Amino acid sequence: MIKIAILGGSGYTALELMKILLRHPGVEIAAISSRQEETPLVAELHPTLTGRISLRTERFDVNKLLAAKIDCVFGCLPHGASMSLLPRLLERGMRVIDLSADYRLRDPNVYAQWYGESHEDLAYLAQAVYGLPELYGEEIATAQLVANPGCYPQTAILGLAPLVAGRLIELDTIIVDSKSGVSGAGRSPKLTTHFPECNESVSAYSVGNHRHTPEIEQTLSDLAGSAVRVLFTPHLIPMDRGIFSTIYATPLRSHSTTELRDLYKEFYANAPFVRVIPHLPATKYTFDTNFIDLHVQVVRDRVLVLAAEDNLIRGASGVAVQNFNRMFGFDERTALL
Fold it and tell me: Where are the CATH 3.40.50.720 domain residues in the chain?
């Protein structure tokens, strides 16, 4: 059995992670930390786990994790906190899947520009592997540190990857218009996600400066072999969970819808959680799953891609377990179907 620990056990992503790992045949959840002063039972933080997990949360302690012989740590911490704590685990040989943004951007100057603070851990930043299994699966399998991808970026990157890799579209006129459920903002109370503020309302936010923009551009630039620029605009939708992205691209030459769908099916032929579908996607179809649904078609000489996912599972905890499975030699689909 692989013994795992979860850092930051009070949030939504930690809850989903525990629900998935509790049905994983090769995993023992051995420790769960919380930054709260109290150390409540996990089931007190997440009543849905009553009768399923008896652990009590603990304050972060490297020596306790070593004594518990932890093999892998899932970091469900906010950005900034991860890079201050995770090096202590990595130095002691533990493997880590970080769900924060701290290790996603390779260039520390880009991180500082978009996150407003200097990166404290340049050594492990240089070693981190971006955790998008469909594109970096072989590197993930041998990595010590995996930077789990953001929720929005997965819809944009996987929605565009076949087009960008084949250099079939203009690389500087891409538009990504995305909508997310309120859980994407996390569990901590905020005015903008207070029920009377967000219910019966749709609003854009972080226009022109959302922190997922450089993550999308970095990965797409890797695929293209040259710089990619994306105009990304996120919106808050009054529902619990789910992301829906509408992507617009200008083709460099004419293609039919059938040709593009065949291209996508071939590109994702070995990707068990990417579904290339003929019908229009919807967040309801990916709810509570690790699937991402992609629909591509040509509309008025433009390429239109529609992408839907569950932001808490495919967007965070599910893909983290997908990465874990690759790292420890399990079938990629274990506990996720």
Answer: 2-127
Confidence of residue 198 (pLDDT cuts 50, 70, 90): confident
Determine which helix (DSSP H) or strand (DSSP E) holds 197, and give its type and residue range: helix 195-198
Half-sphere exposure of 239 (CA within 13 A, CB side): 16
Name the residue among 182, 174, 169 with its Cα closest to residue 156: 174
User: Is residue 79 a contact partner of residue 100, using CB atoms and an 8 Å limit?
Assistant: yes
Contact at 8 Å (CB) between 242 and 310?
A: yes
**Domain 2-127: which topology?**
Rossmann fold (3.40.50)
Can you name the residues that pair with 296 across neighbouring β-strands? 305
Count CB atoms within 10 A of the CB of residue 270. 10
What tokens were used for 302? 């433009």
**Sequence-distant (≥ 6) Cβ neighbours of residue 284 within 8 angstroms:** 242
Tens digits of residue pLDDT in 63-93: 999 999 999 999 999 999 999 999 999 999 9
- Its pTM stands at 0.96
Q: Which residues of 231-252 are buried (b: 16+ CB within 10 A; e: fewer)?
A: ebbbebbebebbbbbebbbeee
Q: Which residues contact residue 211 at a Cβ distance below 8 angstroms, ignoring those fewer than 6 apart? A: 101, 114, 115
Cα 312 to Cα 288: distance, rounded to the nearest angstrom: 8
DSSP for 42-87, written as a single string: HHHH-GGGTTT---B-B---HHHHHHTT--EEEE-PPTTTHHHHHH
Which residue of the set 72, 76, 151, 198 is catalytic? 151
How many angstroms separate the CA atoms of 316 and 318, rounded?
A: 6
Measured CA to CA, the distance from residue 104 to residue 107 in angstroms comes to 9
CB 33 within 8 A of CB 77: no
pLDDT digits (tens, 9 = 90+) for 266-287: 999 999 999 999 999 999 999 9
Class of domain 151-310: alpha beta
Which regions of the chain carry the CATH code 3.30.360.10? 151-310
Active site residue 151: yes
Q: For residue 148, give the DSSP letter.
A: P
